[in-house]
Request: fold
Amino acid sequence: MSHATKEELGAAASVELNKVLASGKALTPKERLALPAQEMPAQPPEVRVRNIQEVALGYTPEQARVEAMRCLQCKTKPCVAGCPVQIDIPGFVGAIADADYARAIGIIKRDSLLPAVCGRVCPQEEQCQAPCTVGKSLKSLDKAVAIGRLERFVADWERDGGKMQPPAVKPATGRKVAVIGSGPASLTVAADVRREGHEVTIFEAFHKFGGVMVYGIPEFRLPKKIVEVEVDVLRKMGVQLVPNFVIGRTRTLKELMEKDGFDAVFIGTGAGLPKFMNIEGENLVGVFSANEYLTRANLMKAYLRGVAATPISQSKVVAVLGGGNVAMDAARTALRLGAEKVYVVYRRTEKEMPARVEEVAHAKEEGVIFQFLTNSKRIIGDEAGRVTGIECVRFQLGEPDKSGRPRPVEIPGSEYMMEVDTVIVAIGNDSNPLIKQTTPELDTTKWGNIIVNEDCATSIPGVYAGGDIVLGAATVILAMGQGRRAAAAINKQLCGGGAG
Amino acid sequence: MIETHVIVRKKQLSPEVFEIEVKAARIAEQRKPGQFIMLSMDVDLGERIPLTIADADTAKGTITLIYQRVGQGTRLLAQLGEGDAIPVLVGPLGTPTHIEKVGAVVGVGGGIGAAPLFPIMEGMKKAGNRVVTILGARTKELIFWEDKFRAISDEVIVCTDDGGYGRKALVTEPLKELCAREPKPALAVAIGPAIMMKFCAEATRPFGVHTLVSLNAIMVDGTGMCGGCRVMVGGKVKFVCVDGPEFDGHLVDFDGLMKRQAAYKTQERAALDHACNLDKMAAEKKAEG
Ligand SMILES: Cc1cc2nc3c(=O)[nH]c(=O)nc-3n(C[C@H](O)[C@H](O)[C@H](O)COP(=O)(O)OP(=O)(O)OC[C@H]3O[C@@H](n4cnc5c(N)ncnc54)[C@H](O)[C@@H]3O)c2cc1C
Ligand code: FES
Reply:
């Protein structure tokens, strides 16, 4: 990345754009491929590690149009097949090239409800951008059309311009739907079901709505404001939002249906139960699950020291265990909370890391130190039970395992010590057991994931589920996709089943 | 479906201990002995603190909470009076106590631990058990709800450290005596500071009396999401907020629990000093005005 400022990048794009517009002719594929790929303006690393504001600043309109013009509008549309919700990508990208942003956002919203979120957090390099013909022709995945950034651009254009309109709601049907949790799966169900005129109530265990989008993914990657606006849209549509309400405790699923008269229920409770490694020293003071660390930092705003009531430890040297988005978020949050050194300890190599490529690149720029092919063996503490270090061991890649990834094998005798005062465990989440415990007739896998059919219907009639509680820790877009499917099935059930 | 959690009654039990009755109809209806709520004093910046549901009145739609003014959260809570609302209140959380007829049950409530003990002993009595309650505190003024316990217990033994009221003894003394007496209690329930629960578990162990303890771990969310409340029980990691708060006292790693409880001591102190100054300022303002 060049670290040119947004003004510089925008000015360069203006020059390109004016050239194209001045020629007055449609671009040939060759000319399109010759247009410069647009870099995302970003806060400089040395500045952003000291604040929690968003890292990526978003394209200027000129940049967006030039980037959109790079799209070949190919007939085969491999990008659409790569998108989990099959957005008409060439359609909206073409509209941006024409500067018809309203049409562009309209096209996206036919299939995706949360473009401002997905444009920021989807793993585009594995989805729509992976098969992009432009990237293939230029022999670099980095040169694929930046579909995610364009999606973000139009979504921001709509929101910042105050052009967001709550979708129209059909006349009341008198049917009631309960939505449990308020992550992306739930928000999608709420909108789609409410649109058909059914009464919708969201029950959320926390005091804020948005699920992982508010308590997990940090402000510097996904500003909370964006999620708030989406939640506000639901409110304007007449969706009831009930915070601090734990289904399975404050009310059971059965009571919702039998006592409170809900005709259908959607469970979108996410993958909330953090996994630990079961190594020695894991209960020492200074060892956190990434969920705890990020919740303290994000939801409870522990970064506002002296203002927020929830404390967070003042760390000097931090080791984050894991290689996914969660690990990157934890590592980068630790830097922003003032840690002097942050290590990411990951068993495999950079290539196998499940985190978004952009997040890894950002983490490196910010000074996160990666220890690949390394695993933690035990955590060491002092008399008071506080972390003082971590013993690691080196790995090498061996034969491929069942997933086809080379299996890391421990190198005997390669143990070494690292002095750290904080360890953040980011190795994944299991499903939250609260609803299952109080609803034994709900079928789940042995890991506690709810079993559903292609309509996202569970083993209990009228009860649907989707998102991480079904898929295991997955992604925002997949959660949204399942929400869509569940909503369609709920709407069918409520209309078909003799409404009123 | 959204309820405002107004404080309808407030009583100061001792200089630092308060009893409040709060509107929470749904929680009152749903709660079972052993469960707790989490509350926060600010939707945006507050810390969620767990408090056991000490009693509930389904007719009035209220729950009773007892808290000691210790940290920043409880200090802010103490500033609320009758008619004020608690901004965030979630519950009931935790796995309810398994209540059944086992014969004789001994309950030990140390200090503020008497509050969570009450609904459990009440449940045990209703289930047809012979109930003996031991209440312990440093001084007489820190003993509360003795009359309520008398109403549901076959016997109540009060101990104070200074002997100013009841027996001059630690709670483990009468506990051991009761365990040695025939018929031996089938179950002991000990709730109080971690160190007291540890010694109660040690006291009953030689007698083979099954002992439940209710752990007051540090919590963040109270729904199993963060693992901050984890504790080792019988060599396995347990989350106090969902797997507990009650566990077999003979299996709990109390030393680990106490170390984790101390995790934020220095920062909590700093926050407290800050809060004390705020209190002082408020008091001075009042005095001036
Ligand atoms: C730190 C972090 C970073 C991530 N980064 C990315 C990324 O870059 N890109 C990406 O695509 N995905 C990312 N993910 C994954 C993504 O956030 C999830 O896949 C997605 O949010 C799942 O959505 P969901 O609707 O299933 O549930 P969630 O977002 O998990 O929301 C579930 C909600 O249900 C509530 N709830 C749970 N139990 C109950 C109950 N009993 N009663 C009431 N409410 C309840 C919870 O409080 C929560 O608010 C990340 C996840 C984390 C933790
Ligand atoms: S308080 Fe977070 S898991 Fe128990």
The longest helix of chain B spans residues 265-288.
